[in-house]
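Progress report, Aim 2. The chain analyzed during this reporting quarter is listed below.
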Amino acid sequence: MILKSTLVGALFIWFSFGSSSISEVRRGFFKVCEKDKKIADWIVELQKIEDSNYLILAYKSAAFTMYAEKASGVSNKLKYFNKGRKALDKIISKYPSDIEPRFLRLTIQMNAPFFLGYSGEIKEDKQVVLRGLLSAEKNKKEPYLVTKIVDYLKSTSLCTAEETEFLNKL
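Predicted structure tokens for the chain:
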């Protein structure tokens, strides 16, 4: 009985830590996007997280691409961008229907300089994200994330009038 309650307690702590980590990582991402946090500070926070959950890794990958803007020298900029891009693309290939890595890639593609040629998946990522938002909203999953994704999509010229109307209903 003691072993069982210890195991249950340990699992509770592990799951609580894991979900709080991803929540904090998400919030960090949006703070960087909204210029409320410096990318270098967020990367330091990410490096302290030892969780190997694919969502954490997706955010770490996105951070590398975002850091490329601040890195010095063209070769360093490309190194950071490509490292993050390749890692994020690999995660998406393993979890193609998960909207969160797709959303991260979508935001990166929307903000990447044209000459990098990293815009080929914008339409596909947008469609996966839009379909996933409906499911997430129905299941009341991660309201903070859903709200932030909806706000981002509405702030771009990416969505059609019909898609924007859909987003307004969420």
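Residues 51-169 form one domain. Residues 114 and 120 are 11 Å apart (CA to CA). These observations will guide the mutagenesis work planned for the next reporting period.
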